[in-house]
Write a structure and sequence with these properties.
The complex is a heterotrimer.
Chain A (H helix, E strand, L loop, with lengths): L13 H17 L4 E3 L12 H10 L6 E3 L1 H4 L3 H9 L12 E4 L24 E5 L9 E4 L7 E3 L8 H10 L6 E6 L2 E5 L4 E4 L3
Parallel strand pairs in A: 2-3, 3-4, 4-7
Antiparallel strand pairs in A: 1-8, 5-6, 5-9, 7-8
Chain B lengths: L13 H16 L5 E2 L13 H10 L5 E6 L6 H14 L2 E2 L8 E5 L12 E5 L13 H9 L4 H14 L10 E3 L3 E3 L9 H4 L5 E6 L4 E5 L5 E3 L8 E5 L13 E5 L6 E5 L2 H9 L10 H5 L1
Parallel strand pairs in B: 2-3, 2-4, 4-5, 5-8
Antiparallel strand pairs in B: 1-9, 6-7, 6-10, 8-9, 12-13
Chain C lengths: L7 H17 L9 H7 L1 H11 L4 H10 L4 H12 L17 E6 L49 H7 L29 H9 L3 H12 L7 E17 L4 E17 L12 E8 L3 H14 L15 H7 L2 H9 L6 H17 L11 E5 L1
Antiparallel strand pairs in C: 1-2, 2-3, 3-4
Helix pairs in contact in C: 2-3, 2-4, 3-4, 3-5, 4-5, 7-9, 8-9
The chains are: A alpha/beta, B alpha/beta, C alpha+beta.
InterPro entries (chain A): PhnH-like_sp (IPR038058), Phosphonate_metab_PhnH (IPR008772)
Protein name (chain A): Alpha-D-ribose 1-methylphosphonate 5-triphosphate synthase subunit PhnH
EC number (chain A): 2.7.8.37
Chain lengths: ~200, ~290, ~375
């Protein structure tokens, strides 16, 4: 049973657990496509996987408005996030620094989120999205900074047109969104620089 | 006045760490782009590594092993001071051995030993903007980066050639990252530039006073700017290190007397010691054990 | 035999020990107390609080003692401490109209409601060294007047009543006050963040810039509309209570300069303002700040930007003395790796021009990668 209390499920040791979770996502961003583990202790309401809760606790605070998928919005998760981190809900998706989506909602469109400007490409959203699984889906070849030659990823549950949308995101560079896919306690990062291709069978 | 300051692990408060961590993630996602961050006032002077210290403090954990170098050496006073700071505020394990370190904070050098996967090299950066000496205004240089308008930089380098027959930039030599951003590698000698290219280590750059963080993920394309008729070259030394006999490394010139006596020794002290421990000896070197006695 | 220099750690420890010795000075002389600094060097304390952006007289006094009287070092110490403090929220804007006034002068009106009040000023002292201060001679108790229960209205409010001066500038209701210690500077700045930067800016730097405007580098024809020094109450709004609660009092110096402005296509002829507000008693700083603030508003009034004092990026990027001192002084850190690279280049270029080395051979050559 998911603990639905907004007062529990945070880090027991915010300093060291936050550091460990950050290193997981930093290593993930620096090595796109590589699956990283989080410690699995945080638990948030709304069916949020532990890795997503850990990222929220690690990265979000009152300086970073967030937005949520519809089913999360209806859950106790926003109250949990507000209590645990002090982060405000963004007025619109365009004001969000972070956005969280679980499998209960459709994979979100990238449009409508901030992608930064040519002067400030860092002022862009980081999307944190739960997928069915980080492995076992159709194989994709990943190339770009952080990847020696190429890497193969196979997240399961991406929308059919994901590759086209991701390519579109890539053309915006240096603007663009960054993506963290999560499943359970694990995460996989796709910064905007990663180029994906369907792998020839 | 009682109850003066008890500090958090790694000195910075958690809110500050989060802010720096978010900047680091965006910096990794946009290699070579300088992310503005709300640099804090650190208990050491601006220009003395406050940017590097903040980056290190934001990523450091209890299982890390930290190495701090200045000019390639672990025992220069500022390196000693920064290392002592992290021992005090984070009780972290420290080392002088490049191989053993998980995080290496550096000023002005990249270690000679090839860095490996999982290591993080944190640079202290005084002026992060490679265009700053051509255009002092942030409002202007920001536009130039936005438009990839780097003509001014090429003009400057070419004027050097016209005037001196050489590109007269010997350190902080500008690089282009993934064909997009021109980036300042910090005041490392251009000798070290090739080590940045396709490095296995994550490279993070912190400029505290100028409030910028930028990054090179591992395996990132980093090219030193040059011209077809004047290709980029690095310094090389005529003689090997006088202590360990190493060649193809960066050497410090040591003045021995006031009659022009000079010797050249490894700038990277760990590399030099490691070689001497392995029995390599330069023409003025002594075996390591003897020297310690 | 050559052995590489070692022992940075011991050198640092010994340097700290020597520093502590020099700070203490002659042991036959009684150590100076924090309370003495706080109460008898109070203007030094005020400057440290102002430029450290932290109102805490006793910690400022401690910083002055610890820094051996080096003001920028003391400011640095207090700022490094300030950084570690948690942020509980923002106070309400202080009402300087309700100030308990210790000093108030206006150069624009001979007399005005609330009157002029000289207060504890050096202005009309003859600058003759006072031998009496060599000893602890008794000092008379000062004469004070009972503060008037009414607010002493500000000179700019009087002018504003006639529509002769631009109104107090305001930000939109939605505007959250910026905080330059928590967010990176972004040019052009909004006026709130710019004023913050000026308020913690180096007194000497702002003084020189203000002086330059008077000498024709962006002349703004200022009058000292009013300078007031005194205590104001700081209040914080607590949403849980639904009203503001007082947190305590701080001493502030406020200067409003009244400047000429001819008017433009969109604005009628009227006076404009420059604003200075500083912790503690620091008229020089508040006045300099108001002149520089006005000069920096050039763009707002469609004035040509021709002088350093009008150049926001130049002024703000260089006004912070802790940053400036750090970067200037960092030049004493070792730079021998870079210097080696430059040595090599100069030797090589001299060799190419046929200039023989005086007594040593260049050890480096350029090699293609």
């Amino acid at each position: 049973m998911q603990d639905t209390s907004i007062f529990t499920g945070g880090f027991a040791d915010p300093v060291l657990q936050g550091q460990a979770a950050f290193r997981a996502v930093m290593d993930g961003m620096a090595n796109p496509g590589r699956i990283k583990e989080t410690d699995g202790t945080p638990s948030a309401p709304g069916g949020v996987p532990s890795a997503m809760a850990a990222l929220a606790l690690t990265l979000v605070d009152h300086d970073t408005p967030f937005t949520l998928g519809e089913s999360l919005r209806a859950s106790a998760f926003p109250a949990w996030l507000a209590f645990q981190t002090g982060a405000p809900m963004a007025d619109t998706a365009f004001d969000a620094s972070f956005a969280f989506f679980t499998c209960a909602d459709a994979f979100p469109a990238f449009e409508g989120f901030p992608i930064g400007s040519d002067e400030y490409p860092d002022r862009s959203v980081t999307l944190i999205i739960e997928v069915e699984a980080l492995e076992g889906g159709p194989q994709l070849t990943a190339r770009g900074p952080g990847i020696r030659e190429s890497a193969v990823i196979a997240p399961k549950g991406l929308p059919a047109d994901f590759l086209a949308r991701w390519r579109e995101n890539g053309t915006l560079f240096p603007r663009g969104i960054d993506l963290v896919l999560v499943e359970g306690t694990r995460l996989l990062c796709l910064p905007r620089t990663t180029r994906l291709q369907a792998r020839e069978a | 006045m009682s109850g003066l300051a008890t500090y958090n692990f790694a000195y910075l408060d958690e809110q500050t760490k989060r802010m720096i961590r978010r900047a680091i993630l965006k910096a990794i996602a946009i290699p070579g782009y300088q992310v503005p961050f709300a640099s804090r006032e650190m208990p050491m002077p601006y220009g003395w590594g406050t940017g590097g210290v903040q980056v290190t403090a934001a990523i450091l954990g209890p299982s890390d092993v930290l190495k701090v170098i200045d000019q390639g050496a672990d025992d220069t006073t500022n390196a000693v001071s920064i290392r002592a700071f992290f021992q005090k505020v984070a009780n972290v394990e420290v080392t002088t051995r490049t191989k053993e370190a998980t995080i290496i904070q550096t000023r002005h050098r990249i270690p000679e030993e090839k860095l490996t996967e999982g290591q993080v090299l944190v640079y202290q950066v005084p002026i992060p903007e490679p265009l700053r000496f051509l255009e002092p205004r942030e409002t202007e240089t920001r536009k130039m980066h936005a438009l990839s308008e780097y003509g001014l930089m090429h003009v400057k380098l070419y004027e050097d050639i016209a005037r001196n027959g050489h590109i007269a930039t010997t350190y902080a030599y500008p690089v282009k990252v993934e064909g997009r951003y021109v980036m300042d590698p910090s005041p490392t000698p251009k000798f070290d530039n090739p080590k940045m290219h396709m490095s296995e280590a994550l490279q993070l750059f912190g400029a505290g006073r100028e409030k910028r963080i930028y990054a090179l993920p591992p395996f990132t394309d980093v090219v030193s700017l040059d011209f077809d008729d004047h290709p980029f070259t690095v310094q090389s030394f005529e003689k090997p290190c006088a202590l360990c006999g190493a060649e193809g490394v960066y050497l410090d010139e040591v003045v021995l007397d006031d009659r022009g006596g000079r010797m050249f020794v490894c700038s990277d002290t760990d590399y030099c010691e490691d070689r001497r421990a392995q029995g390599f000896l330069g023409d003025q070197g002594v075996p390591l054990k003897e020297a310690a006695e | 035999m050559y052995v590489a220099v070692k022992g940075g750690e011991a050198a640092i420890a010994n340097a700290h020990r020597l520093l502590a010795d020099r700070r203490r000075g002659d042991r036959a002389i009684r150590a100076i107390g924090i309370d003495q600094i706080e109460s008898q060097l109070s203007l030094a304390v005020d400057r440290v609080m102002a430029e450290a952006s932290l109102y805490d007289p006793s910690l400022a006094a401690l910083a002055i003692k610890q820094s051996r009287g080096d003001m920028i070092e003391a400011i640095f110490l207090l700022r490094a401490y300030r950084t570690t403090l948690p942020r509980f929220g923002y106070s309400e804007p202080v009402d300087t109209g309700a100030m308990r006034i210790e000093r108030r002068v206006s150069a624009t009106y001979k007399d005005l409601p609330g009157g002029q009040l000289l207060g504890p000023t050096f202005d009309y002292t003859h600058r003759l060294l006072d031998p009496a201060l060599q000893t602890d001679e008794a000092v008379e108790t000062p004469l004070t007047r009972t503060p008037s229960p009414e607010n002493t209205s500000r000179v700019t409010d009087i002018l504003n009543g006639e529509g002769l001066i631009e109104p107090d500038s305001s930000m939109e209701d939605e505007h959250e006050p910026g905080d330059i210690t928590r967010t990176p500077l972004d040019f052009p700045m909004t006026r709130d963040t710019r004023l913050q930067a000026l308020a913690r800016g180096d007194e000497g730097f702002l003084l020189a810039l203000a002086y330059s405007t008077q000498r024709g580098y962006a002349r703004t024809h200022p009058f000292a509309g009013e300078i007031r020094i005194g205590m104001v109450e700081v209040e914080m709004d607590l949403p849980e209570l639904g009203f503001s609660v007082p947190l305590g009092e701080v001493r502030l110096t406020e200067c409003q300069s009244v400047n000429q402005f001819k008017g433009s296509a969109t604005q009628p002829p009227q006076f404009t303002r420059g604003y200075g507000l500083v912790f503690g008693q620091s008229e020089r700083k508040a006045m300099a700040m108001s002149l520089v603030d006005r000069a920096l508003r050039a763009e707002e009034f469609g004035e040509d930007i021709v002088a350093p004092a009008q150049d926001e990026e130049f002024v703000i990027a260089h006004s912070d003395n802790v940053q400036a001192t750090g970067f200037v002084e960092h030049l004493k850190l070792p730079h021998y790796v870079d210097f080696q690279a430059e040595l090599d280049l100069v030797r090589r270029m001299r060799a190419e021009q046929g200039l023989a080395p005086a007594n040593t051979q260049s050890e480096q050559k350029e090699a293609a990668e």
